[in-house]
Design brief:
alpha+beta; 4-stranded antiparallel sheet; about 25% strand
Length: about 100
């Protein structure tokens, strides 16, 4: 690597770190809130979400409440995408 290439690479580091921070903006709490908005048929400002334990969040709003268990779904690619599943939800196709 030439010295001009090395300087260019060093100059690009702050930009790269900003991109990483922007990609990490979604939290499990945000995803649990979005699920509750959909499940409760409420607006986002009518939903309150609090951490119950570790990766579980309780959402309340519009006369409904639910607990969502969240996990990172795309860690292998360096992203913080979360998947939150409402407790009690399951695949009904496996019911007999």
């Amino acid at each position: 690597m030439t010295s001009s290439n090395a300087r260019l690479a060093l100059a690009a580091l702050p930009c790269a770190s900003l991109l990483v921070l922007a990609a990490c903006g979604t939290t499990a709490l945000d995803v649990a809130r979005a699920r509750a908005v959909h499940d409760f048929h409420c607006s986002e400002d009518e939903i309150s979400v609090s951490e119950v334990a570790g990766t579980s969040y309780e959402a309340k709003g519009c006369g409904d409440s639910a607990v969502y268990n969240c996990a990172r779904s795309d860690v292998s690619r360096g992203r913080n995408n979360y998947l939150c599943v409402r407790e009690g939800d399951h695949d009904k196709s496996t019911d007999e």
